[in-house]
Design a protein that fits this description.
515 residues, alpha/beta, Rossmann fold, six-stranded mixed beta sheet, 18 helices, globular, nucleotide-binding, Sugar ABC transporter ATP-binding protein
């Protein structure tokens, strides 16, 4: 493996069929060089992963290839198209299909209509002489089976689908849309491990059909399971392109962040000394959770693992007042409490970090200062007037302590996913909660930002707080937690000691445990 300082692709194979060629591609925004002279070639029938830390430029490159953005300089030529793509319509004509991290699903359309959305959008089905698309056809059902959604009715509305199902429904369109290049931009971020096998099957079919697949992802285990080559970006520059078979996750991590990443040390056992749990949940019902019971003690990190639809997020939202419980008892240090609203939870010093930071984690039109101080504004106010100087000084400290890029006045929505997540974490931890629930805390963020989040979680527990981490990533919980509870069909079906368990144990239990 060799790094090329000029961004040259050292793995170019003149015998392969070129699908696209990027030459000297730059993309500048005010004050930011998102891409700075990238040369990269993609080939038919291969998976080219594009990796990098948050803000490295990987999603920007994907958007340029898809015509969503236009280069500041340089161009991207797609094979068979007469000139560089300049917009999304031309990229589509050239055969580029982009699958976004946030799937385009129309809630008021049926599952079948969402499969055929791009054909319906084209307008061919609104002309009286055109042949109508049968969205309830055998073909539609075959397409759904191909992405692990064969159990869904084509006639049911899409609004009831979970995040993973919505993403897989979006991916199903690959089977009914003509394309030569398919971009998967963080499309596995909202899916769980059982759906990744469906994505692998989809990618194998696409490769066999000669499609060039661009896979943008933070999850290096998935990158190495899928990719033929890996292009690594850092600070807008292409630092290297390596063959997956000749490299390792540690090698790629070092290229991404400029240094090797130290392994996460498993937490030391917690001494209880007979004190009651910080939080005790007995026979909880709410959402899809059915009769869930567990305790979390001071200084303990408990993991809650399950596949899509297992009820893990229902538990997280119910024990933090995001949704009302319909049964069960919650006690905090031995005192029974009722949590009807998030405000009730906050007054009880309970914090919830949502799995959907863009929708629920921060206010889109607020800057870092406004978002990070939002929960604790009453502490900074006198007679209803906020002390702006105190607020600004404290936010500066939080930006430093949580290693957030940007200043107090930087708009949070302009930050990379990892930095947005650190803003959300800082906002809630500033409230000094005794019980913290983090739902998918590292969803869609790179390995460097993950390490920061893990260190923060461990430091919270070290201060005697009780922590519940909800995750669909077994490996993450095994390295981070003291105990792991596995959910299936709304119930906790097993508990594991990470010292004596592995990913197979968790996944097999989540898939096959008999109630």
């Amino acid at each position: 493996m060799t790094s090329d300082q000029h961004g040259h692709d050292p793995t170019t194979d003149p015998q392969q069929t070129v699908a696209f060629r990027a030459t000297g591609v730059k993309k500048h925004y005010p004050g930011v060089k998102a891409l700075d002279g990238v040369d990269l070639t993609g080939y038919a029938g291969e998976v080219l992963a594009v990796c990098g830390a948050n803000g490295a430029g990987k999603s920007t490159f994907a958007k340029l290839l898809a015509g969503v953005e236009t280069p500041t300089d340089g161009d991207i030529m797609v094979a068979g198209y007469p000139h560089p793509v300049r917009n999304a319509a031309e990229a589509e004509q050239a055969g580029v299909l982009m699958m976004h991290q946030e799937p385009l699903i129309i809630d008021d359309f049926t599952v079948g209509e969402n499969v055929w959305l791009y054909k319906l959008r084209a307008g061919r089905d609104i002309r009286p002489w055109a042949q109508k698309t049968n969205t309830n056809s055998q073909r539609t059902r075959e397409v759904l089976r191909g992405v692990g959604l064969g159990h869904l009715r084509t006639t049911e509305l899409a609004r009831g689908l979970g995040p993973g199902q919505r993403q897989m429904l979006s991916l199903s369109r690959a089977a009914v849309t003509k394309h030569r290049i398919m971009i998967l931009d963080e499309t596995t971020a909202s899916t769980s491990e059982e759906h990744f096998n469906d994505i692998l099957d989809l990618v194998r079919r696409e490769k066999a059909a000669g499609t060039c697949i661009i896979f943008v992802s933070h999850r290096l285990n998935e990158v190495f399971a899928m990719a033929d080559r890996i292009a690594v970006l850092r600070n807008g520059r292409l630092v290297d392109v390596v063959r997956a078979a000749d490299s390792s996750p540690d090698d790629v991590t070092a290229l991404m962040i400029g240094q090797a990443l130290k392994a996460l040390a498993r937490p030391a056992p917690v001494e209880h000394h007979g004190a009651p749990p910080v939080i005790s949940v007995q026979d909880l019902y709410g959402g899809s959770a059915r009769g869930v019971s567990f305790d979390v003690r001071s200084g303990e990190i408990v993991g809650l693992y399950g596949l899509v639809g297992s009820g893990r997020s229902s538990v997280a939202r119910t024990v933090t007042g995001q949704r009302q419980a319909v049964g069960g008892v919650v006690t905090m240090r031995g005192e029974r409490i009722k949590l009807s609203t998030p405000g009730d939870a906050l007054r009880r010093r309970i914090a919830y970090l949502t799995e959907d930071r863009r929708l629920e984690g921060f206010v889109n039109d607020f800057d870092n200062g406004q978002n990070m101080s939002l929960v604790v504004l009453p502490r900074m106010a006198r007679a209803g007037v906020v002390n702006a100087g105190q607020e600004k000084a404290r936010v500066k400290e939080l930006i430093r302590d949580f290693q957030v890029k940007g200043g107090v006045k930087t708009m949070t929505k302009s930050l990379s996913g990892g930095n947005q997540q650190k803003v959300v974490v800082a906002k809630w931890l500033e409230a000094d909660p005794d019980f913290v629930v983090l739902d998918e805390p590292t969803k869609g963020i790179d390995v460097g930002a993950r390490a920061n989040i893990y260190e923060i979680i461990q430091s919270v527990a070290a201060r005697g707080k009780a922590v519940l981490v909800v995750s669909s990533e077994a490996e993450e919980l095994l390295s981070l937690c003291h105990r792991i509870l596995v959910m299936r069909n709304g119930k906790v079906v097993a508990e594991f000691d990470p010292e004596h368990a592995d990913t197979d144990d968790l996944i097999r239990t989540a898939l096959t445990h008999q109630d």
